[in-house]
Amino acid sequence: MIAAGLRPSIGLAFAAALAAACAPADHGGGDRFVPFAEIEGVLQPELQNDMPPAALPSGTLRVVTYNVHFADELTALIAAFSDVPSLTAADLVFLQEVDAHPSEGATRAAKLANSIGMNHAYAPAWAYSDGGTHGLAVLSRFPITSAGVLDLPYYDLRVNSERRIALRATIQVGEQELAVVVVHLDTRINVNDRLNQLAPAARLADASCILGGDFNTLPFVLPGASSPCCRRTRSRPSTCRRRSTSSWRATASAPRPRRAARRPTTRASSASSSTRSTSAATGPRAPGSSGR
């Protein structure tokens, strides 16, 4: 039955959204950060340490997290890191939604890092049909001594579901090693599922680790993780179930259709370390951008 006052097409669409429900989680996440050296094929990550170490920060390490929405506007992004004080002062940059395409010669993470004089680690989460990839990156003014990738719990959201990962990098800051972890969580999941998706990364993080990124927190509850329903007043129990990991691991590198490109934008995230003072900042919102 279609609710009174709704046109049939709208009512059917709303019914379909509710029917989708919170799809079973295909796997519950990995149990370790897989070193870059162990990852091959189309999802092979990239680590570059060509830049000399920067001078040690005087008491504060500045961390920026930035969802660059595919980094299609790469020239504008490079200009922002050269002109905007909150970006030019960054010691570490956590990037989400970074693209790489074979036709461009180098990954966009590499182009940005080289342009602003930083080292970088890039970890693809999934692949395009053209052999390109989409993932996370860490940029650093200090040497990146190691990096690894952790699978986060996967939720089948029916539309635009995607593999979510955590990227861990170890940064050599003077005589000390600093672990950082960057994540980008699903949008259309509720608070308990969001905590569940973040849990493997938090569980494996060191006590002094800086964990940041795009957490995609929402001010409302999603019925069946499909569409906004009402403002969130309390956590709702998760209805998602888990299946075995074998099917996911077999298809993790399968090509994914290209979605419409979005312009760069930013997401706010705080980052802190128990062993040193840090400050977190975000990049500027580019003209015409929209959050995801």
List the helices and strands and how they pair.
Blueprint: H1 8-20, E1 25-27, E2 34-35, E3 46-48, E4 60-70, H2 74-83, H3 85-88, E5 92-100, H4 108-116, E6 119-128, E7 133-140, E8 144-151, E9 154-155, E10 165-173, E11 176-184, H5 191-204, E12 210-214, E13 220-221, E14 230-231, H6 246-251, E15 255-256, E16 277-281
Parallel strand pairs: 4-5, 4-16, 6-15, 11-12
Antiparallel strand pairs: 1-9, 2-8, 3-6, 5-7, 6-7, 8-10, 10-11, 13-14
Write up what this structure looks like:
By secondary structure, this protein is an alpha/beta fold. The protein has a single domain, classed as Deoxyribonuclease I, Chain A, CATH 3.60.10. Helices cover 19% and strands 31% of the residues. The chain is built from six helices and 16 strands. Strands 3, 4, 5, 6, 7, 15 and 16 form a seven-stranded mixed β-sheet that branches. A five-stranded mixed β-sheet has the order 2-8-10-11-12, with helices on one face. It has a two-stranded antiparallel sheet with strand order 1-9. Strand 11 (176-184), helix 5 (191-204) and strand 12 (210-214) form a beta-alpha-beta unit. Helix 2 (74-83) runs parallel beside helix 4 (108-116). The longest helix has 14 residues, at 191-204. The two termini are 33 Å apart. The model is unreliable at 1-24 and 229-291 (pLDDT under 50).
